[in-house]
């Protein structure tokens, strides 16, 4: 039996000291239901992380990410997360959410607090712990 970790590609989109995040659907069967997380997803067989990221972002936001820059990889026994970053070069209201419950630009205060408000959810929703850690690491790396 093969217990290799799955590979995913994630995007840190930044704009005016804020970070674009997706509120994941509140479905118990998925990872981090009802949590804020980074956009991205599973890589297909023989797909490079950059190609997979571009495909996932197009599917999830109808947005073409240009020149994503590799930030870091996070690996554990279950998942290898290939993390890229890029500026968000369009207004958030031009994005078309194709997956998830909500999207929004989160502030530095939201990131440090570990939760952010969603109008669609009608309240504060938590950040996925690994996603929060990735963003906090990214902030340290930038400085």
TrEMBL record:
InterPro entries: NUDIX_hydrolase-like_dom_sf (IPR015797), NUDIX_hydrolase_CS (IPR020084), NUDIX_hydrolase_dom (IPR000086). It holds the Pfam family NUDIX. This is NUDIX hydrolase. Residues 1-130 form the Nudix hydrolase domain. Keywords: Hydrolase. It comes from the Bacteria. One of its GO terms (molecular function) is hydrolase activity.
């Amino acid at each position: 039996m093969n217990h290799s970790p799955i590979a995913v590609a994630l995007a840190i989109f930044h704009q005016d000291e804020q970070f674009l995040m997706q509120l994941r659907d509140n479905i118990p069967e998925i990872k981090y239901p009802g949590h804020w997380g980074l956009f991205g997803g599973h890589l297909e067989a023989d797909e490079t992380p950059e190609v997979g990221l571009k495909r996932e972002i197009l599917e999830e936001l109808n947005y073409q990410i240009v020149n994503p820059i590799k930030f870091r990889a996070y690996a554990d026994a279950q998942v290898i997360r290939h993390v890229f970053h890029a500026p968000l070069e369009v207004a958030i209201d031009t994005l078309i959410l194709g997956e998830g419950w909500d999207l929004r630009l989160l502030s530095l205060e939201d990131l440090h607090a570990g939760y952010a408000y969603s109008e669609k959810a009608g309240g504060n929703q938590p950040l996925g712990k690994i996603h929060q850690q990735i963003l906090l690491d990214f902030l340290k790396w930038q400085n």
